[in-house]
Give the backbone structure.
Amino acid sequence: MGYEPQADFGTPEVLSEITVTLTIDGRPISVPAGTSVMRAAAESGGSIPKLCASDNLAAFGSCRLCLVEVDGMRGTPASCTTPVAEGMVVHTQTPRLQRLRKGVMELYISDHPLDCLTCSANNDCELQDTAAQVGLRDVRYGYEGASHLGLGVDSSNPYFDFDPSKCIACSRCVRACDEVQGTLALTMDGRGFASTISAGQSADNFLSSECVSCGACVQACPTATLQEKAVKEIGKPERAVITTCAYCGVGCTFRAEMRGEQLVRMVPWKDGKANRGHSCVKGRFAWGYAHHKDRITSPMIRESIDQPWREVSWDEALSHTATRLNAIKAQHGARALGGITSSRCTNEETFLVQKLVRAGFGSNNVDTCARVCHSPTGYGLKQTFGTSAGTQDFDSVMDADVILLIGANPTDAHPVFASRMKRRLRQGAKLIVIDPRRIDLVRSPHVEAAHHLPLQPGTNVAVLTAMAHVIVTEKLADEAFIRERCDWDEYQDWAAFVADERHSPEALEAVTRVPAADLRAAARLYATGGNGAIYYGLGVTEHSQGSSTVMAIANLAMATGNIGRRGVGVNPLRGQNNVQGACDMGSFPHELSGYRHISDGATRALFEADWGVALDPDPGLRIPNMLDAAVDGSFRALYVQGEDILQSDPNTHHVAAGLKAMDLVIVHDLFLNETANYAHVFLPGSTFLEKDGTFTNAERRIQLVRKVMEPANGMSDWQVTQALANAMGLGWSYSHPREIMDEVARLTPSFAGVSFARLEEAGSLQWPVNAAHPDGSPIMHEDGFVRGKGHFVVTDYIPTDERTGPRYPLLLTTGRILSQYNVGAQTRRTENSIWHDEDVLEIHPTDAENRGLNTGDWVRLASRTGETTLRALVTDRVAPGVVYTTFHHPSTQANVVTTDYSDWATNCPEYKVTAVQVAPSNGPSDWQRDYDAQARQSRRIAGHAEAAE
Amino acid sequence: MNVDTLVMMANQIARNLAARGEEVAVAAVAEHIRDFWDPRMIKALHEAARDSLEPIARAALTRLGDSG
């Protein structure tokens, strides 16, 4: 599309079944009751002048430009705050209104720099447009009086500037921060003429304030007061392409606003159903990695990992790789080969990688990074409900009365959804937080959890079973729902199990460290507080009982009837942008797309007929099994697309040993990541800006990814995989990712109705999309569970084998921070590092004092597996006995410390529970120095200066 | 394959399914291993010292052997 600003109807859409008909400027229009006159006029094609109104903010009635005349009504009411009424007759343009608006506009302009020609918002400025709209021709007050024109620019934020001289005090930025983002970092400071926007306290600038750089204020600003630095540098965009963010599992859609081939800015798309026009600092601003100097754009090969890389042509790289793969297959058999699909790549790309492994390599040794995050979700929800996915859309949270948040930190990891959640909490919904840490949502402006259960890490199942005990023994279960929708006999078995006194909150308090009274109160609130919705994250899944916890969550939802309608449900907050999609596409070694087991002959026959090749009927190796088998010598070659297992997977030493043991490691990525230190072939990847395809977010929403610029390496990732397949002789001929999705659709019942054409038409679709659900399925299990009757599963609490003791007395749990993403390969190569340039260890003041530690001190973090060093942050956000860190920086390598313990059902690593000791340190450990030296050695490229990591 | 790891995994599965009662648990453990383990892992477990397997896991392994 060409460049047009997004339509702004002035006030939010109103949903009402009652329709009101009125007349605006002689034209009749019918709108939902409660709609503002301003919005009604906009919907009828009119345009009432406005400055303080925007359709993502509540009407404010401040700028006095949107005045209208209404027959029978005195005065000139503001159209933004005046609701429509049946039979109302409105006039939006009269001599009186014109005179009033001009007068108001004169006042605005008398204190505004008239530098339009050199202003970065020239021709993209609502103030400029409105001045033209009201016919302003002169300003009677002159420009000599007191003004704000000399105020300095706050350039502290790396992505946008604040120029107070251009501010018209409309408060849109303040309201956006309050209403849309929910951070309340901005305020209107001073009164009358002295009014000015202030971030944080008076001594703060934007960078030092509580501002989270979501960009909502920048988007809301009608002038150049808050504007992206990129627009200042590059100029106004000339076209926009709608695409989908490649960061977290929220799946925000953006307008990539371009000048030529240059990306000027990413602006959240108002019609995006996942983000509803909002964004976070990553998706909005952190895209500079796409052009970072570290990006590798030429294929490279080497015979051994101690050699420097050698740049080669695509033909040579692909031919060499195919020859090596075929040779290893001939010598060691098909099961010696495997691949890892990427949750950052598109559905079409992951589908091709798993197809290459199954149909080309001839094994089922394919896995994906969901192995280390949400594989227990897939297992647990399939067992209980029959589908490996969450039950709701994001909009559903606005109908929740009680939100139970367990093992998730949405304000850091899923910030755009967190803003929706906070909006609902400000409206009065109650919040229960189950988390060892005092996450921001426990208490933040205008949000306070009704209950925070700070459990001992590793005791999720015990806590949830105790909650179930309360619900069953206090007769709070929804028996009618259970009898109708679930297996009653199984429920009775489960109810008898949880009702046992050994599962009472009091009996388990010594294990969970959650006060029994608090747990009982939380259970009662969830069961009786109206619509109860459970949201969870990796604090649930990344445990030795991750799958049990997911099933325990499902049990609670079924027992209380909180499933199958809006406002309730079980909602996994997926980590990466396409974790859901990668799982859907058959990336697990035991199942084909649509979660159908590889041993099922009928399903396998479908694929065999389509692909023209016989498939291995046995499950393949999962990632940790591949590494074990590599050390054992039975697994010899690995193709890794868009994944950095050396940094992201547990027990770094073991991962390194596995990779080192392989004959051939092929890394397909944007950068020479940590895994590439052990690779023999590097195939350069493409960013989400350089490809077409689809991502599927945490709400099962399939959305189009659209190419906005040509791939820097010459090929999108799906083309690279196809070229490798063809080098192996497979004869693939896809000309566009839409053809891959057509193949997915014909082979996968839950995707039967999906096509690029349907996605273009609908904007997005939530699977299943098929004959029964042609427009998709925002809410699952509405009329019954996919598996038939809901399945209650007895989940016994089994303590992890990882135990604290005298040598390792503390429990380490790991997580994420807002500004960095996963292993940081992308965000560390952006200005986001200004907020987080190193991983730090959070430690409770008592534990710090016992060790003589202060904030900023270097500490040695040691476990039975390994040790690293990092700086301490003394904080009571963590409980005594618990320490916390992130894993965004390879210089820390937090996973040197984490163990091989994993979920019993899926092998999802137990990142959240590692027994550690913390002690003062003088700086980086020997291991860190050795690793850094090895990494530098490994990244050498023949003929180049040393490549950056 | 690292036999110690496989034994630990099998025992862990058995412990997590034990609450279903021994008979059901044995069948469930066998089914789980058949559904999710690569054949070389099952083969290696068969060759492991059965003494290190807990009773439910050991019975499940026997059942896996019986069913091929």
User: Anything to note?
Assistant: Chain A has four domains: 19-134, 300-369+578-766, 374-572, 810-939.
